[in-house]
């Protein structure tokens, strides 16, 4: 870390949650961390558990349910992941596996 004003690396942390440069005295706030991605990952994990054993078989039906709670990109990725996991959990023939993978591919589009 360095001072944005003078470039010095002699930085101190103040009790007021600010950094201060020991050379020039410039102060700046500690950047706030965005934790919203964690909330999204937890939501996706819960939805995965909810729908992994659900009787919904097609990408379209699964997407309809997931779009109620996620944006389109995340819903499509999660639907494909669920369909692929279902295929891998079951002992399927090559033709059935191909159908599941094709359906998962449609989720990405």
TrEMBL record:
Pfam families: Zn_Ribbon_TF
UniProt KW keywords: Coiled coil
InterPro entries noted in UniProt: Znf_TFIIB
Coiled coil found in the keyword field: yes
Domain (TFIIB-type) ranges: 1-39
Domain of life: Archaea
Coiled coil: 56-90
Protein name (database record): TFIIB-type domain-containing protein
Biological classification of the source: Archaea, Thermoproteota, Thermoprotei, Thermoproteales, Thermoproteaceae
């Amino acid at each position: 870390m360095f001072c944005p004003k003078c470039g010095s690396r002699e930085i101190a942390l103040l009790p007021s949650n600010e950094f201060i440069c020991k050379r020039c005295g410039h102060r700046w706030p500690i950047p706030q961390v965005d934790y919203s991605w964690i909330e999204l990952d937890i939501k996706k994990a819960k939805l995965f558990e909810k729908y992994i054993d659900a009787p919904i078989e097609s990408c379209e039906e699964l997407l309809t349910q997931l779009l109620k709670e996620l944006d389109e990109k995340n819903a499509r990725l999660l639907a494909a992941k669920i369909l692929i996991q279902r295929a891998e959990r079951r002992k399927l023939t090559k033709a059935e596996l191909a159908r599941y993978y094709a359906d998962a591919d449609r989720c990405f589009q």
